[in-house]
Design goal:
The complex is a heterodimer of chains A (about 450) and B (about 260).
Chain A lengths: L12 H9 L5 H16 L8 H11 L18 H5 L3 E2 L8 H4 L11 E5 L2 E2 L13 E3 L20 H9 L4 E5 L9 E7 L4 E3 L2 E6 L4 E10 L11 E10 L4 E9 L5 E10 L4 E8 L4 E10 L5 E10 L4 E9 L6 E10 L4 E10 L7 E10 L5 E10 L5 E9 L3 H8 L5 H17 L5 H14 L5
Parallel strand pairs in A: 1-7, 2-6, 5-8, 6-9, 7-10, 8-10, 9-11, 10-12, 11-13, 12-14, 13-15, 14-16, 15-17, 16-18, 17-19, 18-20, 19-21
Antiparallel strand pairs in A: 2-3, 4-5
Helix pairs in contact in A: 3-6, 7-8, 8-9
Chain B lengths: L5 E12 L2 E12 L3 E6 L5 H9 L4 E10 L2 E2 L5 H7 L1 E4 L6 E5 H15 L7 H15 L9 E2 L5 H15 L3 E5 L7 H14 L5 E6 L12 E6 L2 E6 L1 H10 L2 H8 L4
Parallel strand pairs in B: 3-10, 3-11, 6-9, 9-10
Antiparallel strand pairs in B: 1-2, 1-4, 4-5, 7-8, 11-12
Helix pairs in contact in B: 4-5, 5-6
The chains are: A alpha/beta (about 450), B alpha/beta (about 260).
Chain lengths: ~450, ~260
């Protein structure tokens, strides 16, 4: 990404002068300038109904900078490649054919699919004919859910603010009270590459006692479809889970290997609700997933699962944060990473249990499989537990493929390569098997096998 | 018996781990239809011998030869040995979380069949095959849907090993302390399983500490292993003698230079 190919007409005069000045700037100035530049390039007409909110965010963003590794939240993830890169506006006008996305269509959600191209709704590529008992649409469908946008805790975070200030459209999922959406919804966010920065935004409201399964899926156009593997997606999804509602949320980040992806999942849960997040991070040169849930009632259940796969020189960073506020709530977290070549994986899991959140049960486990001695894993649990009558556990493991396991499989006639693949697949399967649709499980398992080939 | 085919011929086998010699010249010949028992103290090299025969990469063979049906066994990868009919029941079977026992058994079964020039069996037909073999070790079908050995008790792991042996129908079965950790019922079941697999065309090598296994599986030959060598070979009565007199008796004989 240090060398970027920009077509001359996509480079604005302001950017030109900005980069000329770069030499004289301090690193801090560069990081601030970078954010202002991203804000500038990303500027869109926005969503009329939210113009005040977006203007407010733009004002906030003008004071912010790209974080440095001195910021505790970014200690292990150096964003200087983003600072050094040159991005251009995603005008949402890139034309994408049905054929170009055919490979990403999930048979199980063929007709419950909404497609956004560089953050903008594309009705031609979408098919919502089988999306029952749920309202799915773009910003035109915001209606009553608009009041929730950018209201969730954590919305002042820098990349979230950037997104709020500049998003051009919003994916909306609204499940009415007691409605049960039977078919999984596929929210497909297509990035067209060519160094475009896009600001995908998603607002989900599951009203009381409703149920829905979402598959939020970030992909890049392949080279045959005009994609060049670059780009920057800065995505934000907000989810309101009302009382007794159940949301199963799969998040697949499989963007091109030369791209950047920063994604945020912010959730609030009312009493008796259940929220499950299954995040698979396998794409992008550098990716960050911030997932946070805030409990707003008792008997809340939160399940956070994730698999990151880093090969080549990829870095994948997951920061989870569960904020308890009420008694009798529970959470389960299992984050796994496979790191090969010079891949780097970062996990930080914060669990906040204040005094009033008695009878909390919170489990957190981070397991890492290192397939190369040049790969690296950084893991950091952050348990902030004030309540005293709680059951909280956490653990982190780093392991390699075990020779004795490989030998055991070999001694039963399974060749060495297959044995190693089998063990890697088994490691990934614990997360991938939680995905609700078989086609995705199969595709992603095959990707894991193919991408770890170099380690075998 | 003298005219039976030689299945395994080990001559002067020496092997080390991390540069430390463990096997110091093992000689052993096993023919079709035979059951052998190898006894010996902890640390005498019994598991090392079994792992060297199965091809464990941690052990370095430093001398001697091993022929399996006349072919140089040491040249072959572990999986090739398995496919050609060498089966090692592990003293400590490994747990493989995330790999279904059923899928594992089928992959293994098909690898062996392919080698034998037989057609591979699909998941559907394999259900019948495995069903029948479950009976051999009286194992509950529920174990098939679990991950390989994960959370199995010691006895369940050993049954799973014998189930694998029954499926693969090896030409040479090496059972490393399959009896240890089993209660008497499990011991009987596992022994009966072994007896069902043993026939005049294959051979079994039982590694054990205890005479009690030999109440159920009758070996024609009993070997005593001591410091990386087989120092004594006899019939079934040798096992009884060991049981009665303990291994000190061997030490004394060695000291007297008469073993
Ligand atoms: N991985 C190893 N590293 C070092 N020494 C080993 C290893 N495995 C076995 N040994 C040594 O080899 C000797 C024989 O061990 P083993 O074959 O397990 O004996 P047995 O099965 O008869 O109890 C013992 O002294 C043991 O300590
Ligand atoms: Mg042993």
């Amino acid at each position: 990404m240090e060398t970027v190919n920009l077509t001359s007409n996509s480079l604005s005069p302001e950017m030109q002068s900005n980069s000329d000045r770069v030499e004289k700037q301090s690193p801090a100035e560069k990081r601030a300038a970078c954010l202002q530049q991203l804000l500038e390039i990303s500027k869109t007409d926005g969503v009329a109904a939210l113009s005040e909110l977006q203007a407010h965010a733009a004002a906030l963003a003008s004071e912010l900078a790209i974080p440095s590794t001195r910021d505790e939240d970014w200690r292990f993830t150096d964003l200087s490649k983003i600072v050094a890169a040159q991005f251009v506006a995603a005008d949402g006008k890139a034309s994408v054919s049905t054929d170009a996305i055919a490979g990403f269509v999930l048979p199980e959600a063929r007709s419950s699919r909404i497609v956004f191209v560089d953050g903008v709704y594309n009705p031609e590529l979408s098919d919502l004919s089988a999306a029952d008992n749920v309202t799915v649409g773009n910003s035109d469908a915001l209606a009553t859910v608009s009041k929730h946008v950018a209201q969730l805790p954590g919305s002042e975070e820098v990349f979230t603010t950037l997104n709020t200030a500049t998003f051009a459209d919003v994916a909306v999922v609204h499940v009415a009270k007691k409605a049960i959406a039977e078919t999984p919804l596929h929210l497909l966010f297509v990035s067209t590459g060519s160094n475009r920065i896009s600001q995908p935004r998603c607002m989900v409201v599951a009203e009381a006692s409703s149920q829905v399964s979402l598959i939020e899926d970030y992909v890049s156009l392949g080279s045959a479809q005009g994609g060049d593997g670059s780009g920057f997606s800065n995505a934000v999804t907000e989810i309101v889970v009302e009382a007794n509602a159940q949301v199963e949320h799969s998040l697949i980040q499989r963007e091109a290997m030369g791209s950047f992806h920063i994604g945020k999942t912010s959730v609030i849960q009312a009493q008796d609700s259940r929220y499950t997040n299954i995040a698979v991070q396998i794409g992008a040169a550098l990716s960050r997933h911030n997932v946070e849930t805030h409990h707003q009632g008792t008997q809340v259940e939160t399940n956070l699962y994730g698999l990151a796969l880093v090969a080549g020189e990829q870095l994948a960073d997951t920061h989870s944060n569960i904020q308890y506020n009420h008694p009798h709530c529970q959470s389960d977290q299992l984050y796994k990473a496979i790191a090969t070549d010079k891949g780097r994986s970062v996990f930080s899991g914060r669990v906040g249990v204040p005094k009033l959140a008695q009878q909390t049960s919170a489990a957190q486990l981070n397991r890492n499989l290192l397939l190369s001695n040049k790969a690296r894993v950084d893991t950091k649990p952050q348990l902030e537990i004030i309540a005293d009558d709680v059951k909280c556990s956490h653990g982190a493991t780093v392991s390699q493929l075990e020779d004795d396991q490989v030998f055991y499989l070999q001694s039963r006639g399974i060749d060495r390569d297959s044995a190693q693949h089998l063990l890697i697949e088994a490691f990934a399967a614990e997360i991938l098997l939680k995905l609700p649709v078989a086609s995705l499980r199969e595709t992603l398992t095959a990707t894991v096998t193919q991408r770890t080939e170099s380690a075998i | 018996m003298g005219s039976s085919e030689v299945i395994l011929s080990v001559k002067g086998l020496t092997a080390s781990i991390n540069g430390t010699p463990i096997l110091k010249g093992v000689d052993l010949e096993v023919k079709a239809g035979e059951i052998h028992a190898i006894m010996g103290r902890n640390g005498s090299g019994k598991s090392t011998l079994s792992k060297v025969l199965a091809g464990h990469p941690a052990y370095e063979v430093t001398g001697g030869e091993v022929l399996f049906h006349g072919e140089d066994l040491l040249e072959l990868e572990p999986e090739e040995r398995a496919r050609k009919g060498v089966f090692l029941a592990f003293q400590y079977p490994l747990e493989i979380p995330g790999v279904s026992n059923l899928d594992f058994l089928r992959a293994s079964y098909n690898a062996r069949r392919k080698e034998q020039g037989l057609e591979e069996v699909d998941a559907f037909d394999f259900d019948d095959v495995v069903e029948e073999k479950l009976d051999v070790v009286k194992m509950d079908a529920a174990f098939l849907n679990r991950s390989v050995n994960e959370g199995f008790s010691g006895g369940e792991k050993k049954r799973n090993e014998i189930l694998q042996m029954a499926l693969l129908e090896p030409s040479l079965g090496i059972l490393d302390e399959t009896d240890s950790g089993l209660d008497i019922d499990a011991l009987r079941t596992v022994s009966e399983g072994v007896n069902q697999v043993a026939n005049e065309n294959n051979a079994m090598v039982l590694i054990t500490h205890y005479q009690r296994l030999l109440d159920y599986i009758k070996p024609g030959f009993v070997h005593v292993m001591y410091d990386g060598r087989i120092i004594k070979t006899g019939g079934k009565e040798l096992a009884l003698e060991l049981e009665e007199k303990g291994y000190d008796w061997i030490d004394e004989k060695l000291a007297a230079g008469v073993a």
